[in-house]
Design goal:
- The structure is a single chain.
- This protein has two domains: 134 residues, Calcium-transporting ATPase, cytoplasmic transduction domain A (Distorted Sandwich), CATH 2.70.150; 105 residues, no CATH class.
- It is built from nine helices and seven strands, in the order αααααββββαβββααα.
- Helix content is 44%, strand content 17%.
- α3 crosses α5 and α4 runs antiparallel to α5.
- The radius of gyration is 28 Å and the shape is elongated.
- Strands 1, 2, 3, 4, 5, 6 and 7 form a seven-stranded antiparallel beta sheet that branches.
- The protein starts with 13 loop residues before the first helix and ends with a helix.
- By secondary structure, the protein is an alpha+beta fold.
């Protein structure tokens, strides 16, 4: 079973999707569902251990620009310029606190996404309707939806009767989207206009319907958002990467200048050190 290499699920008819996903209107058999669950894993967002405060603080301190400031503070202290050293150190502390708070907010956002998932799903297997844990859904499962349900996975709708789904968590639209299972859409159709799809974490506000599971876990639309929140390095903007590069260059230049100043002072017999260090 391959996940539609040619067309996205919303650009296929339901019969084409049944064929491509090797399923039918009777749903998967239990043995086949178990096989797919073992092969593709549970329908759940991946979790990584949250960073500790010490780890976050370390990441803040080893930033090139922060290292420059710490070096400047140390140099000011050596020259007995305690006010300047104190101000620079205060700036570093405030910057680190702000950075840690921002990262904590990102962790909270990720945790909130993980709570926005259905606990159970109504699925049709071997032609019979049953309720299973949403984490056990697999690609090709046929899921039933009713008013008040949370969509448990990304679905290509196969039936819809006055079906409306609130997708604010993905599109930002406050008005529920009207769904039409018979629609076949263009491959470049934007997410908010895919009226034949239902996405994980969205809420059925009216009507009923059913759909084939096309994506689960981290492959879902909400899973991709969770992945972007979790992978901080991948989310670096071009500006941030350039600033990091400039910071490294400035760190090297700053260290070279410090060495030259001490060398010149030593050469002329007046080391730039406080008296209690050279007495």
């Amino acid at each position: 079973m391959d996940n539609q290499k040619q067309l996205p699920s919303y650009s296929q008819t339901t019969n084409e999707l049944f064929s491509n996903l090797e399923t039918s209107s009777s749903g998967l058999s239990e043995p086949e569902a178990e096989r797919r669950l073992k092969k593709y894993g549970p329908n759940a967002l991946a979790e990584k251990p949250p960073k500790s405060i010490l780890t976050m603080l370390k990441e803040q301190i080893i930033d090139p620009m922060i290292l420059i400031l710490l070096g400047a503070a140390a140099f000011s202290a050596i020259l007995n310029e305690w006010v300047e050293a104190g101000v620079i150190f205060f700036i570093v502390v405030v910057n680190s606190i702000i950075g840690i708070i921002q990262e904590k907010k990102a962790q909270s956002s990720l945790a909130a996404l993980k709570t926005m998932s259905a606990a159970t799903a109504t699925v049709i297997r071997d032609g019979m309707e049953k309720i299973i844990p949403a984490s056990e859904l697999v690609i090709g499962d046929l899921v039933s939806l009713a008013s008040g349900d949370m969509v448990p996975a990304d679905l290509r709708l196969t039936q819809s009767a006055n079906l409306k789904i609130a997708e604010a968590s993905l599109t930002g639209e406050s008005i529920a989207s009207e769904k039409n299972a018979t629609a076949v859409l263009s491959p470049d159709c934007p997410l908010g206009d895919r009226k034949n799809m239902a996405y994980t974490s969205s809420i059925v506000t009216y009507g009923r319907g059913s759909g084939i599971v096309t994506k689960t876990g981290m492959d879902t639309e909400i899973g991709q958002i969770a992945g972007m929140l979790e992978n901080d390095d991948a989310g670096d903007t071009p500006l941030k990467r350039k600033l990091n590069a400039v910071g490294k260059i400035l760190t090297i230049i700053g260290l070279i200048i410090c060495v030259l100043i001490f060398a010149i002072g030593a050469f002329y017999g007046r080391p730039l050190l406080p008296q209690f260090l050279v007495a």
